[in-house]
Amino acid sequence: MVERIGPALDRVTADIDAAGRLLPESPWELGADVLEWFAWNPVLSKPDIPA
């Protein structure tokens, strides 16, 4: 179960595509606060679709 921790950080929403690219390629460039936000808010994951 995922617990959302609040609205996206400005550093995420400023360029969500760039954040999405950096997350798997070089997450250290995002910073700990952004990584923590993504850990609790899986907005880039595929939605669960019931079979």
Per-chain topology:
Elements lengths: L9 H4 L2 H10 L6 H9 L11
List how many beta strands DSSP finds: 0
- Name the shape in a single word: globular
Strand content: under 5%
The arrangement of helices and strands along the chain is HHH
Structural class: mainly alpha
Distance between the termini: 19 Å
What average pLDDT do the residues reach? 78
Task: Give structural attributes.
mainly alpha
Can you describe what's shown?
The protein has about 50 residues and is mainly α. It contains three helices and no strands. The chain has helices at about 10-15, 15-25, 30-40. The radius of gyration is 12 Å and the shape is globular. About 5% of the residues are buried.
Provide a short characterization of the protein structure.
The protein is mainly alpha-helical. The chain is built from 3 helices and no strands.
